[in-house]
Amino acid sequence: MSNELEAFLEYISVTRALSSKSVEAYKSDLLQIEKETASNLLSLNSETLLLALSNYSNKRTLNRKLSSVNAFFDFCHKQDFSEKNDKFKFAKIPKLLPKFLSYEEVKAGLSLIDRSTWIGARDYALILFLYASGARISECLSLRVEDIEGEWLHILHAKGEKERIVPLAKVAIKAIEVYKFMMPFESELIWLNYQKSGLSRISAYKITQKYLGVSPHILRHSYATSLITGGADLRVVQELLGHSSLLSTQIYTHIQKQNLKETLEVYHPMSNIKK
Fold it and tell me: Which of 113, 153, 191, 262 lies most in the core, judged by the most C-beta atoms within 10 Å?
């Protein structure tokens, strides 16, 4: 390992106070490049370095390596270890469209639940609640009985410690009431396991995976998708999801565009004319 690399690792570990895992990741990336090129990083020209990095077909892996290289070169330049301060552009990664379930798929999963037991009633209510509220699973699991007032849901433990109030469908409220009535013990928390403890994220994941084959977060996407395809304004969806920036909500605009396209194809008289 070169003296410059040792100094860089000490800098990010002590001065920047990065975690040991992050430091180890930087170290692994940079040593791997030196091993593959059989050269000190600072002695490599841009062409040789990029040629070595071109072996990484996975763009996310490539970008992680580039991030490590850029950070190292920037450090060396500022410390006068090197005159060059090359910055390499990251590879473009296509945005992954959010996976979601249709209302029919959610209903099909709900129909599989045996609601004759309080555990079954809980699973049914949990899935309905997630689909009807768009709440993050962390917000969901921390909810207390007092957080539901009439047909309104107070999400007090939202991301960033912000509070928001969203309407909750009557069918979800009714399902929670049935589940709470059947539950053999009382608690301020809404979602419990059979040991009277708060339901864990792992348990919630197992429930949605069992009946729907997806994680709880997919129901949040499904909630937003249902609103968008139903004609909801993007800023309203932003408010309901608790996104601090509209940029976070804009991942759903592809659904909005697709819905408009399908509507045009069905209703416009010229949509099926080929010539």
Answer: 153
Tell me whether residue 252 is one of the annotated catalytic residues. yes
Give the pLDDT score at 268. Answer: 54
Give the pLDDT of residue 274: 60
Question: Cβ atoms within 10 A of the Cβ of 250, count?
Answer: 14
Decide if 144 is catalytic: no
* pLDDT attached to residue 261: 59
Could you write out the DSSP letters of every residue in 136-184?
Answer: -HHHHHT-BGGGEETTEEEE-S-GGG--EEEE--HHHHHHHHHHHHH-S
Q: Degrees (nearest 5) of the Cα angle 227, 164, 107?
A: 35
**Distance (Å, rounded) from C-alpha 25 to C-alpha 21?**
6
What sign for the dihedral angle of Cα 108, 117, 174, 202? negative
Q: Is 217 a catalytic residue?
A: yes
- Residue 267 forms beta bridges with which residues? none
pLDDT in tens, 98-118: 788 999 999 999 999 999 999
Residue 78 a catalytic site member: no
Q: Tell me whether residue 136 is one of the annotated catalytic residues.
A: yes
Of the residues 65, 122, 136, 221, which is catalytic? 136
Q: How many Cβ atoms are within 10 Å of 79's Cβ, its own excluded?
A: 12
Give the phi and the psi of residue 215 in degrees, each rounded to 5.
-85, 160
Nearest of 227, 229, 207 to residue 216 by alpha carbon: 207
Among residues of the chain, what percentage have pLDDT more than 70?
Answer: 87
Q: CA 39, CA 16: separation in Å to the nearest integer?
A: 27
